[in-house]
Amino acid sequence: MGKKIKLADISTDPEEKITKEEAAKEMLGLTEKLAEIQNKLYAQKKYDVLIILQGMDASGKDSAVKHVFSGVNPAGCRVKSFKAPTEEERAHHFLWRVSKECPEKGMIQIFNRSQYEDILVPKINNLIDDQLVKARCAEINSFESGLVRDNTILMKFYLHISHEKQLEKLQIRKTDEYKRWKYQKEDIAAISKHDDFAKIYEYIFEHCAEAAPWNIIPADKKWYKNYLILSEIVQELEKYEIHYPKVDL
């Protein structure tokens, strides 16, 4: 069981005194550090890294992928976006489509949405009951614990955006020609259920934290969200003995 988290008690704005310019400067150094760690990770092939990005619609998951991982070598990094299950995926166990996308040793894998969508969306739409939600949480805990035992470095991020900022971004998607392609009518319904999604996320934070804790990232300011995610990733990876393998010449 993880600790109880009440999203309403956590600010969606920056919680530390750092300016946008200072964060941008720090990100340059952090980007270089992540690139160096990735090179060692890829060469060593002892660990793999799985980074899960969750958040409500318009919370900035795509932006995080673009900016946080801008310096990594594409050969050692993959991104998988989990959307509504296909007919084939629905015919399998809900973890089937997730498990086959997990990284091999030496790789960084980013999940833009993840196994948690199979709790969130069905519960919001009243397709599963509380008993099945509890059962799926237990299965996810076992699944993630198995990955960690096999030297997967697992990091989970929730991008915490306010309802007001969601509505603002939705309006931009409707009016900005460069972002209009992202606009979907379903977004309106999803954003209108902000509080319902928050309650389910709070349950997930408490009941799906056995293998790795959740990092709650204030996401109303894009620059701060990206800086904080990158900082947390580098800080976590530096805890591990990731180095170039010794070569006997």
How is this fold's topology laid out?
Elements (H helix, E strand, L loop, with lengths): L19 H25 L3 E8 L5 H8 L8 E5 L5 H4 L5 H4 L8 E5 L4 H8 L5 H20 L2 E9 L2 H13 L9 H8 L1 H14 L6 E5 L3 H16 L12
Parallel strand pairs: 1-3, 1-4, 2-3, 4-5
Helix pairs in contact: 1-10, 2-10, 5-9, 7-8
Contiguous runs where pLDDT drops below 50 for at least 5 residues? none
Work out the number of β strands.
5
The helix/strand class is alpha/beta
List SSEs in N-to-C order.
HEHEHHEHHEHHHEH
Average per-residue pLDDT, rounded, comes to: 94
- Radius of gyration (CA) equals 18 Å
Helix proportion range = 40-55%
> What is the CATH-assigned architecture?
3-Layer(aba) Sandwich
- C-alpha end-to-end distance: 49 Å
CATH class membership = Alpha Beta
Instruction: Walk across the major sheet and give the strand order.
Output: 2-3-1-4-5
What is the total domain count?
1
In DSSP terms, counting alpha (H) and pi (I) runs of 4 or more, how many helices?
10
CATH topology: Rossmann fold
Biggest β-sheet: count, sense, barrel? 5 strands, parallel
Q: In percent, how much strand structure appears in the residues?
A: 5-15%
Q: So what's the overall shape?
A: globular
CATH superfamily: P-loop containing nucleotide triphosphate hydrolases
Question: What would you note in describing this structure?
Answer:
This protein is α/β, with parallel strands linked by helices and 249 residues long. The chain has one domain (7-237): Rossmann fold, CATH 3.40.50. The protein contains 10 helices and 5 strands; from the N terminus they run αβαβααβααβαααβα. Strands 2-3-1-4-5 form a 5-stranded parallel sheet, sandwiched between helices. Helix 1 packs parallel to helix 10, helix 2 crosses helix 10 (222-237) and helix 7 (163-175) packs antiparallel against helix 8 (185-192). The longest helix is centred in the first third of the chain and has 25 residues, at 20-44. The protein starts with 19 loop residues before the first helix and ends in a 12-residue tail after the last helix. The mean pLDDT is 94.
